Amino acid sequence: MRILLFVIYIFLSAICVSCPLKKIKFISEEFPPYNYMTSDGVIKGIAVDVLVAASRLVNCAIGRNSIEILPWARGYKNVLVNANTSLFSMSFSKERSKLFLWAGPFAKTKNVLIAKKDSGIIVDDENPLTRFMIGAIRNDISHQLALKAGAKPNNFSYGNKPENLAKMLYKGRIDAWAYNYITARWIFRKLQYSSDEFEIVYNLSENDNFFAFNKDSDKKAVELLQEGINMLKENKGKYGVSQLEEIVSNYL
Q: Phi and psi at residue 113, in whole multiples of 5°?
């Protein structure tokens, strides 16, 4: 039995050496269309498809069933403190740049403040962010950008899930919602809200999306995923565009 266990250990160790991505615990959140779980329990999205396709291209395949879905705040804390952990999709910012190792980019996100059209909300010098109650997910990029733009901590009402914040906005419990515009529209459709009832009242920033790794993670794993993403950008797909563009076009 000891010999068998030793052989299994050597075999698994060899896999990790030849395929360093297998060492990484991949964490994501409900952030459609970039990453989300379908009603039948399948993890899908732009970032998920990028991870699966890029890892296959470098002969170190990562399966969808190895990805864990957590609320953003828990996933963010996890990747900050645990080596060989990756969180996606994470928007790159100057403030975050030194906190993580990065592989990407693979997509762009437009981060905004959204309000109901009939609210009459205007954000300008006479109506700064400090006048409004803003819904946000703690440590989400839009939350961080709104703080940077002048909002104070007491201007925020937090939620763990974007659906909850969308409902709060719809019911008038918050004045505006700080979030990714494409994802917000996706969630409005899911909740059967008309997107025509909402509008962008403030542009926070446009950011690139990456896979973020804990700083003490195996750098070979980060480099390998980066190599796969680069190949997706360079390889032509069936319709004359890159394989990465094909993945994105499946969702947008």
A: -105, 125
